[in-house]
Amino acid sequence: MHPADPLLSVRDLRIAIGPVDAVRGLSFDVRDGEVLAIVGESGAGKSLTARALLGMLPRGATAAGSARLRGETELVGARRQVYAGLWGRRIALVPQDALSALSPVHAVGDQLAAAVRSVRRVSRKEARARAVAALEQVGIADAGRRARAYPHEFSGGMRQRAVIAMAMINEPELVVADEPTTALDPGTQRHVLELLARRREETGASLVLVTHDLAAVEEHADRMLVMYAGRAVESGPVDEVFARPRAPYTAGLLASLPPDLSPALPSAEPLPGRARGGPVAGRRLPSIAGAPPTLAELLPGCAFAPRCPLARRAEPAEPAEPAEPAEPAELADDDRCRTELPEPQRLGDGEREVACHRWSELPDRPAELFLENV
Amino acid sequence: MSPASALLDVRDLVVRYGSFVAVDHVSFDLAAGETLALVGPSGCGKSSTAAAVLQLHRPDGGEVWFDGRELTALDERALRPLRPAMQPVFQDPYGSLSPRCRIRDAVAEPLRVQGRWDRMAGPARVAELLDLVGLDPAYGDRRPHELSGGQCQRAGIARALAGDPRLLVLDEPVSALDPSLRAGVLNLLADLQERLGLGYLFICHDMAVVRHFSDRVVEMRDGRIVDER
Ligand SMILES: Nc1ncnc2c1ncn2[C@@H]1O[C@H](COP(=O)(O)OP(=O)(O)OP(=O)(O)O)[C@@H](O)[C@H]1O
Ligand code: SF4
Ligand SMILES: [Mg+2]
Q1: Which of A74, A138, B84, B184 is the most exposed place for a label (fewest CB within 10 A)?
Q2: Hey, what's the signal peptide range on this chain (chain B) (predicted)?
Q3: What is the number of domains present in chain A?
């Protein structure tokens, strides 16, 4: 262990499930006390990545590469006993589905107390007191009585609070939350996220937050990692990525937000040809043309190429007359999107990374590239 | 009789759970081709209203007219053939599909219920529906837990569209999708509405999406309608 080692360091993570390479070489760090948001395409491998870190991959999935906790503890391929020693005290999961994280047959307080006693040698009474305190810390009123209730007697929001209490009770260093509020009632989502952020701050843990809620990313995350088809396309400080996306996919993601979602998002600028509400015809939102790729059939080159407006622009125009063949070197250059996998490269001072051959060609208002199917 | 123009006419709807009144004399109507958003804080009765409209939970009072028929007067047997025409799309991506059922069977189910399943054309129709929501038809072989959250939610939408519905009750239908897919699915729903005149009862907390997508907004609080605009 070296003091300069980040809390978590993921290098070239690969996850295969059956014949499909779902995660294809993912590298990122999680620093002490930071919130890293993982956002991106549905099916990009965010949940599989989260599960790989916790040693909870579905059956039939295998992980390769490396994910080290503080430079020493290797998580990829670790045996169950290793994980058993880490769960709760060093790393914890807040899953999307709270019911899957709690046992239906034990009272919530008993489950929390058991979690305490699995780590510390304390009396039953003390474990019990800690369990009640943990429920209080997540804003559950009348915690002493609630601790005796079973998960199904809790509302969805309360249950997710209890799961957060469970994840935090032994003060882990790293909490991985996979869409912790998606299944919740709308009004409750914000409260639960705020609570998660507050408990993270109080315990000094680092948080990896997988989410589609870009407003939540803006509010709670320090840095963000954008994924597409099992790879990182871009990463960097949240405000910088929002202000100036560098990867075409990120630009498309931000352009797809409905207008006036958040004043800080670039998509909030009125875009030409975009009516608000009113007749149906005015209701189209910019979106990224085409469908997400099927991982089993990925072509060589950049996975985003079939949908990418920059790659399309770069396609050599149909030659009017078949005379002059293009310079071989130039042709190879134009084709890079389709033949060569873009590797992440650092921009400037190294806080930003982008994996795109043509990032420097992205216009100042990239949202305009995605207006054609409005 | 219900007014001829309304696809859906809800009158004085009441839903009680024990002594708790979740929906308290709620009335609204919805024309074909129209989107009505139902908004309001957590627990205000939106989802109970939706379930009662679809007769998934029989209301304790009031009338629900759909396409000129009084659903509240029909028994389960009489409702069954009507169900594919009024379909829910739920928020919880994994909870809304049966965990044991393959995706292609789940999508085919409304066709089977209507007695419209055709062994020759059926599979192609299922593939077409999956394709429509941006899912590779190869995913049809999988079960819900073998899909990502967003893939599952799109399978739920494909299923809702299978029985040529006239009314969709969309309860946070795009919550599990990334913003671009969300925009794509909302665009698809707008297209279908324009082409086929579907009526949408749209439950959503994201006011930016609501403003963008709805013709009218009904706001509920404590089981009652408090505002209509
Ligand atoms: N148990 C499984 N069996 C087979 N394939 C799976 C399984 N779990 C996930 N996959 C596939 O792996 C890919 C990545 O899935 P993952 O759940 O990590 O996506 P995600 O980024 O979390 O997406 P979402 O935003 O929709 O939740 C998807 O194509 C999915 O279909
Ligand atoms: S590498 Fe090419 S195809 Fe991929 S995002 Fe960049 S420009 Fe588009
Ligand atoms: Mg997921």
Answers
A1: A74
A2: none
A3: 2
Tell me which residue has tokens 């991982």: A295
User: Does the beta-carbon distance from A283 to B183 stay under 8 Å?
Assistant: no
The distance from CA B191 to its chain's CA centroid, rounded to whole angstroms, is 16
Same domain as A198, residue A255: no
Residue A149 falls inside a structural domain: yes
CATH code of the domain made up of B8-228: 3.40.50.300
Domain shared by A81 and A123, yes or no: yes
Please report the atom of ligand 2 found closest to the CA of residue A336. 2
Digitized pLDDT (tens) for each residue of chain A, 374 residues in all: 566 789 999 999 999 998 889 999 999 999 999 999 999 998 999 999 999 999 999 999 999 999 999 999 999 999 989 998 999 899 999 987 777 788 989 999 999 999 999 988 999 999 999 999 999 999 899 999 999 999 988 887 888 899 999 999 999 999 999 998 877 766 678 888 999 999 999 999 999 999 999 989 999 999 999 999 999 999 999 999 999 999 999 999 999 887 654 333 343 333 333 333 333 335 678 889 888 887 777 778 999 999 999 987 665 555 545 445 544 444 445 689 999 999 999 998 778 999 999 999 999 888 888 876 55
CB pair distance less than 8 Å for B179 and A47: no
Answer yes or no: is A2 within a domain: no
Scan for tokens 């494909």, then name that residue: B158
The residue to mutate among A23, A42, A48, having the most atoms of ligand 1 within 8 angstroms of its beta carbon, is A48
SS3 state at A45: coil
Q: Write down the pTM of the prediction.
A: 0.87
Specify the residue with its C-alpha closest to ligand 2, atom 4: A302
Tell me, in angstroms, the distance from the centre of ligand 1 to residue A43's CA. 5
One domain for residues A221 and A288: no
Boundary residue ending a domain (A174, A195, A228): A228
User: Which pair of tokens denotes residue A17?
Assistant: 């499930």
Q: Tell whether A77 and A36 lie within a shared domain.
A: yes
8 A C-beta contact, residue B179 and residue A212: yes
**Number of A–B residue contacts, CB under 8 Å:** 123
Residues A193 and A238 in one domain: no
* CA–CA min distance A309, chain B (Å): 14
Please name which ligand lies nearest the alpha carbon of B139. Answer: 1
**Mind giving me the DSSP string for B130-165?**
HHHTT--GGGGGS-GGGS-HHHHHHHHHHHHHHT--
With beta carbons less than 8 A apart as the criterion, state whether A220 and A193 touch: yes
Indicate the residue among A228, A258, A292 that finishes a domain.
Answer: A228
Residue A3 maps to a domain: no
State which residues form the domain around A214: 8-228
CB-based neighbours (< 5 A) of ligand 3, an ion: A 47; B 148-149
DSSP secondary structure string for all residues of B20-61 = EEEEEEEEEEEETT-EEEEE-STTSSHHHHHHHHTTSS--SE
Same domain, A68 and A192: yes
Domain residue ranges of chain B, discontinuous segments joined by +: 8-228
Neighbours of B146 (CB within 10 A): 16
Query: What is the token pair recorded at A348?
Result: 């400037």
Query: Is B205–A186 a contact, with Cβ atoms under 8 angstroms apart?
Result: yes
